[in-house]
């Protein structure tokens, strides 16, 4: 009987397949002409249509100006957010060509903005090296804008063209003459709100951070930023003749360093330009930033491998030659040698090959050789010429090695024997029942009282609760052995299943939402900052993946009869109370802590996915976050005191 049922089921499945197959024919194959494909699937070209994708439009246009700078023609790029929300980018390069492009039969200026993969970056001799993930650029910006216009100045003449939703609106025309000393390109565009439904408002801080980074990476190039949306529109100027050497000094601002001027290498090897800047601090944090053609290669790659290999080899060779390591001593590990190091590695490659999940990993093997060769000789000479500094670097690595050995047992405790085992965790973790990380959430809750409410109110399938006791260790100024000896931190890493430090593997994360849930008071803010300091320094891939969130519990509950309203600020409370009828009388409850909420209230306001408000911690603000952590959590007291004295007048007594 069962066999007959199976045969019948298979027969029905085959009939359904044949029916669906008949429907799928040539008429269902779409051919999208021009820039229609970009508007149909924008995420394929700019990553997403979120705020990140919106800002990508600006990077694409700036990259064109950077290319002119790398070719030796542009000296400045001006970026302006106009009062109407549009963006203007102007460079003083050669200006986009206006003669007829043979393949399209249209002016080159029009072709660049209407044809994908059209430009001077594809072997036509326009650029030896080009910045960015070239290939989409101006045409994609045009496709994703309601309006875009371009003015180009070259050979003493000025030309203009404008577009509407990627299509030519006004044919290219000459609009006047200019002096031969005036040249360059002006691009002005309005992002399309039908594409960028989340927002079309540019974040000035995101723009400033990237523009500043580009100025460091391209020494001598002047970049300016003006936000005309503000009443007093000031122009920020970013111009660094020292390039990445100044970048390292900037990254180490306010920290104690082992030597004053960062080591700097600038060389060419087989048509690959290599720049390296390095400086050691007295702290424990390692900062290694790598770039390829101005793209921040978060996932590293061959250039990073070449730098690490050279650094480890040169330090160990020196340590043995200087008798700081005995002949039978093991070499120092690369991890120990890099502790306390701040370094920036930047390569300009004529044909970069990007790999990895986010296309931010450099795959060119010749980049490894180029960096190794260029950096080794200069760094070796530096150590030989500065024996006192060299001794400090070696001794610092030896100290790191001892701390790492002491922490080995604690590190093992943070590992799981399997992805699901939590036997080593304290019993206060209430895990969720689902084994699917993509739907699993870990709430890190301040205090046992709030933890108890959260455990009772949660969705057991998807939500895990980990209460933490008090304030965790400030990892900004702690060695690894001290960090791993901290019970709260150890419990957190064990729950995550990711490992720690060099063993950290974000792909093993058991939860794809890590939610910090603390009280809305000074202590809660402090605990949140300590946790973010930990995540930024030792779990940064979690932030870069978008896995870290901050819960926003309400501050007030207003109850009038059967109507309940939750509010966040004193202003909202004042306005809401003013809108109510005098009868019946409203009662106001102020939540000084999460523990004052019963399980139902905590679920309804802060944990229910349908009602809750979560702020995702974005990697776009990583440098600003790092600066704030160093200022508020680091060893340098004077800047912290100045910050507190300057900003104390803005602090409200939120416990009043």
What does this structure look like?
The chain is of the alpha+beta class and 656 residues long. The protein contains 21 helices and 25 strands. The protein has an eight-stranded mixed sheet with strand order 7-6-5-8-2-1-9-10. Helix 4 (51-70) runs antiparallel to helix 6, helix 5 (108-114) packs across helix 6 (137-143) and helix 9 (302-321) packs parallel to helix 11 (365-385). It is globular and about 75 Å long. It starts with a helix and ends in a 9-residue tail after the last helix. Mean pLDDT is 84; it is low at 23-33, 413-423 and 649-656.
Strand order of the largest sheet: 7-6-5-8-2-1-9-10
Helix count equals: 21
As a whole number of angstroms, the C-alpha radius of gyration is: 29 Å
Question: How much beta, percentage-wise?
Answer: 15-25%
Total number of beta strands:
25
- Which class best fits the helix and strand makeup? alpha+beta
Share in helix: 25-40%
Mean pLDDT comes to: 84
Q: Which outline best applies?
A: globular
Residue runs with pLDDT of under 50 for 5 or more positions: 23-33, 413-423, 649-656
User: N- to C-terminal separation?
Assistant: 76 Å
Let me know the largest β-sheet.
8 strands, mixed
How would you sum up this structure in a few lines?
It is built from 21 helices and 25 strands. It is an alpha+beta fold and 656 residues long. A hairpin with a 2-residue loop joins strand 11 and strand 12.
């Amino acid at each position: 009987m069962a066999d007959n049922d199976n045969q019948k089921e298979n027969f029905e499945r085959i009939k359904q397949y044949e029916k669906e197959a008949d429907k799928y024919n040539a008429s269902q194959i779409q051919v999208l002409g021009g820039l229609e494909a970009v508007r149909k699937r924008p995420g394929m070209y700019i990553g997403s249509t979120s705020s990140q994708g919106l800002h990508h439009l600006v990077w694409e246009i700036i990259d064109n100006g950077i290319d002119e700078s790398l070719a030796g023609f542009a000296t400045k790029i001006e970026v302006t957010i106009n009062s109407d929300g549009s963006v203007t980018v102007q460079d003083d390069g050669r200006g986009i060509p206006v003669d007829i492009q043979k393949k399209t039969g249209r002016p080159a200026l029009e072709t660049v903005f209407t044809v994908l993969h059209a430009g001077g970056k594809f072997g036509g001799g326009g650029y030896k090296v080009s910045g960015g993930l070239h290939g989409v650029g101006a045409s994609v910006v045009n496709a994703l804008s309601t309006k875009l216009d371009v003015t180009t100045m070259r050979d003493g003449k000025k030309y203009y063209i404008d577009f509407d939703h990627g299509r030519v609106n006004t044919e290219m025309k000459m609009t006047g003459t200019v002096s031969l000393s005036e040249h360059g390109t002006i691009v002005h565009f309005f992002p399309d709100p039908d594409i960028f439904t989340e927002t079309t408002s540019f974040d000035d801080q995101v723009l400033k951070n990237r523009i500043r980074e580009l100025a460091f990476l391209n020494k001598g190039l002047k970049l300016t930023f003006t936000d005309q949306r503000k009443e007093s529109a000031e122009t920020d100027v970013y111009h660094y003749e020292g390039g990445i050497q100044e970048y390292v000094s900037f990254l180490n601002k306010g920290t104690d360093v082992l030597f004053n001027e960062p080591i700097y290498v600038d060389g060419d090897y087989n048509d690959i330009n290599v720049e390296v800047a390095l400086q050691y601090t007295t702290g424990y944090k390692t900062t290694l930033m790598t770039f390829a053609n101005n793209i921040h290669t978060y996932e590293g790659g061959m250039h990073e491998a070449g730098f690490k290999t050279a650094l480890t080899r040169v330090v160990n060779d020196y340590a043995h030659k200087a008798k700081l390591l005995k002949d039978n001593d093991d070499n120092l590990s690369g991890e120990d040698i890099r502790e306390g190091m701040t370094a920036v590695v930047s390569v300009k490659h004529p044909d970069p090959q990007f790999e990895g999940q986010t296309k931010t990993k450099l795959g060119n093997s010749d980049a490894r050789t180029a960096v190794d060769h260029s950096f080794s000789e200069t760094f070796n000479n530096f150590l030989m010429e500065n024996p006192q500094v060299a001794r400090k670097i070696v001794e610092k690595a030896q100290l790191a090695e001892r701390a790492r050995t002491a922490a080995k047992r604690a590190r093992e405790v943070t590992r799981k024997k399997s992805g699901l085992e939590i036997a080593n965790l304290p019993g206060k973790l209430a895990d969720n029942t689902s084994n699917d990380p993509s739907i699993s959430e870990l709430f890190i809750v301040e205090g046992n009282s709030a933890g108890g409410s959260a455990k009772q109110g949660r969705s057991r399938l998807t939500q895990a609760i980990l209460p933490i006791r008090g304030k965790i260790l400030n990892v900004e100024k702690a060695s690894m052995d001290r960090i791993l000896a901290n019970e709260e931190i150890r419990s957190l890493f064990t729950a995550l299943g990711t490992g720690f430090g060099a063993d950290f593997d974000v792909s093993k994360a058991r939860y794809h939402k890590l939610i910090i849930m603390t009280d809305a008071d000074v202590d809660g803010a402090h605990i949140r900052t300590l946790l973010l300091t930990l995540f930024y320094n030792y779990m940064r891939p979690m932030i870069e993946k978008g896995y870290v969130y901050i819960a926003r519990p309400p501050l007030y509950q207003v109850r009038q009869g059967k109507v309940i309203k939750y509010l966040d600020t004193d202003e909202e409370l004042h306005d809401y109370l003013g809108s109510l009828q005098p009868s019946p009388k409203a009662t106001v409850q102020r939540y000084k802590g999460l523990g004052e909420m019963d399980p139902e209230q905590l679920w309804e306001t802060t944990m229910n996915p349908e009602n809750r408000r979560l702020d995702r911690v974005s990697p776009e603000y990583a440098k600003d976050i790092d600066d704030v952590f160093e200022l508020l959590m680091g060893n340098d007291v004077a800047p912290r005191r100045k910050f507190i004295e300057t900003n104390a007048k803005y602090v409200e007594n939120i416990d009043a």
